[in-house]
UniProtKB/TrEMBL annotation:
PANTHER family: BET V I_MAJOR LATEX PROTEIN DOMAIN-CONTAINING PROTEIN (PTHR33789:SF5), LACHRYMATORY-FACTOR SYNTHASE (PTHR33789). Coiled coil: none annotated. This is Uncharacterized protein.
Amino acid sequence: MDVLSNRRAWHYIVEVIVAAQVEKVWEIGSDWLSFPARSCVLECTEGENGLPGCVRKVTVKSRSGSPDKERRWVAEKLIHIDHSRHILFYEVVGGNIGLEPGYQAAFQVVGEGEGRTRVVWSFRFSPKQAAIEQMTPSIAARVTAYIQELETLASA
């Protein structure tokens, strides 16, 4: 797995080449209510899985695998999904982890040939949140872990 990153003020991109077919990576990564699951508990709070407007509550698991005592969570709303272009966009609409509404992210996969796929996961803070730039390394690390999980699942 090759990790590349691009950082600009309050915008960050993580790009990773994974050893798996693009269609399998997209099938797993675009399942809004099932991925990522290794480190999170996902539940639908509004709408229908895979359709714009669907809101999921993502509760972070503790190291033991159960939700932690503080029940850190974020609510994410699926804004747009394009299966032909293998891209989806979502935004934060609530939570208690320090991300306010205005945080937006995009997840895209691009075939690189020979069973390899480029995963591009970008996120940005609202101008109001630019001061919380110290969270960027933590979010980038979590995104990278999600992509590692995705590679494991897609290559199984």
